[in-house]
Design goal:
By secondary structure, the chain is of the alpha+beta class. Helices cover about 25% and strands about 15% of the residues. GO terms for molecular function: zinc ion binding.
Length: about 150
C-alpha cells in the first residue's frame, strides 16, 4: 500500500481541520490493517479484536479473568471488549438488544459455552459450564454490551 504509513500518521496527527480530509483519513485507517488486529476462532466461534488470544483475552484486557467475548447487536460479531470493537469495526457499536436476551450473547473463552444475557448476569462471575472465573469489572461497561 503506497503511502500507507504517511496516511496512518496523518490520521493520528491531523494537520488539516477539513472534515473531508479527516473523513478520508478515517476511512483509510479503518481499511488498512492495524498492528495487532486479529480474528481468531475460539471453540468454533470467530472472535475479532486486537491481539485476540486463545481464551479471548485482548490487548485491552488481559488478566486471568478476562476470558469472555461479547456479541454486539450492530454486527452480531463477538469481540473481547468494547475497545476492540471501536478499533476493528467499521461502524458504531450497538449493544445486544433487549428483545434478544434469550439468545447467546456471551462466549466463555475457556470452554466455549455460549450464554444468554440472563445466564451471564446470574452466573456469579464464573462460567456455569466450566467454572472459569470471569472479570467482575465487566459490569462497569455493561451498558456498552447489553441494552438497558
Amino acid at each position: 500500500m503506497a503511502g500507507g504509513w504517511d496516511e496512518f500518521v496523518k490520521k493520528r496527527c491531523p494537520s488539516s481541520p477539513s472534515p473531508t480530509a479527516n473523513a478520508r483519513r478515517t476511512a483509510f485507517a479503518r481499511s488498512a490493517p492495524l498492528p495487532g488486529v486479529s480474528s481468531r476462532t475460539v471453540h468454533g466461534v470467530r472472535v475479532r479484536g486486537v491481539d485476540v488470544g486463545p481464551e479471548t483475552r485482548c490487548s485491552h484486557y488481559g488478566t486471568d479473568r478476562d476470558v469472555v467475548a461479547l456479541r454486539f447487536g450492530c454486527c452480531e460479531a463477538y469481540y473481547p471488549c468494547f475497545e476492540c470493537h471501536e478499533t476493528v469495526a467499521d461502524h458504531d457499536s450497538e449493544p445486544w438488544p433487549r428483545e434478544r436476551f434469550d439468545e447467546p450473547a456471551v462466549l466463555c473463552g475457556v470452554c466455549g459455552a455460549e450464554l444468554t444475557v440472563g445466564e451471564y448476569r446470574d452466573c456469579g462471575h464464573s462460567c456455569p459450564d466450566c467454572d472459569a472465573a470471569f472479570n467482575p469489572g465487566c459490569a462497569a461497561h455493561e451498558d456498552r454490551y447489553f441494552e438497558s
